[in-house]
Amino acid sequence: MSAAPTGETAHFRALESLYAAAPINRLFESRLEIAEAGLARIHFEVDARVHHAAGAAHGTLYFKMLDDAAFYAANSLVSDTFLLTTAFNLLLTAPIRAGRLVAEGRWVSGRRRVLVADARLIDPAGEEIARGTGTFMRSRFALSSLPGYAVPAA
To answer: Which part of the chain is the Thioesterase domain (predicted)?
Structure first.
């Protein structure tokens, strides 16, 4: 039996648990992976359920996945409080109709009050189809008080 993760790794696993527990993610089948501090990936599948009238993924999906990836990249550096998105800018460069995609978020700057992170959306061929940059600030919500933020037990 392996020991429960501790420190930074335990925080990453707890954030992944928080993501999985968020009610919004019942609408979007996706999985968060935090590999290291400042780096988060959202793995998800695009199909006709998220299409707009012209048969490609709606911008809502682009925003959600890019915002989540950037948010969790930033929150991976903050272990006491939940961050809030204060602004997010998008650049959508190509439509996607179907396939497994990855939104990859990376922390850019800031650690105290405001953090900046960006994200890119990668299609099944490895091409970038969208990019976003967000600013995130500390909230009054302690991570430990949120349902779903479960630090793995020893």
So the answer is: 55-129
